[in-house]
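Hi F.,

I've been meaning to write this up properly since the lab meeting, where we talked about keeping a consistent format for the predictions we share between groups. The idea is simple: the sequence comes first, exactly as it goes in, then the structure tokens exactly as they come out, then a line or two of notes. No screenshots and no reformatting. I'm using this chain as the first example so we have something concrete to point to.
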Amino acid sequence: MRDKELGLDKWGQVGYNTCGMTRSHVCQLVADAPWVLQGTVVERHLRCRREGCRVCREQGGHGPVYYLSVRGEDGKTRMVYVPKARLGEVGAGVAAFRRLKEGLGELAAGDLRRWCGEARRRRR
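Output, unedited:
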């Protein structure tokens, strides 16, 4: 890899905090979030089976109804019902997971740059 790709200067040095995220920032993200939920919130309008239902005909179905779409350990996607009263809480948990995932990505990229810089200095 080239120095620019690794974020190294012309002497092969890396600053201590080349990324915006530190381990303490990542830990704080986890501590601040009451829930860390992986998945996507899905809004659906469900159709009933009654013939001639006015709601289904005029609005496209009953709802909205909210689900958290989650991939299980077996690789299958499942839908977990989310009551409207808890929609904000679940949305915050999903957002916390995304922030944590991005933060870990930044932290890993910064650590890679630092590790490569140290390895380069050791070879000299």
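Notes:
The chain has one domain: 3-115.
The first helix runs from residue 3 to 6.

If this format works for you, I'll send the rest the same way.

G.
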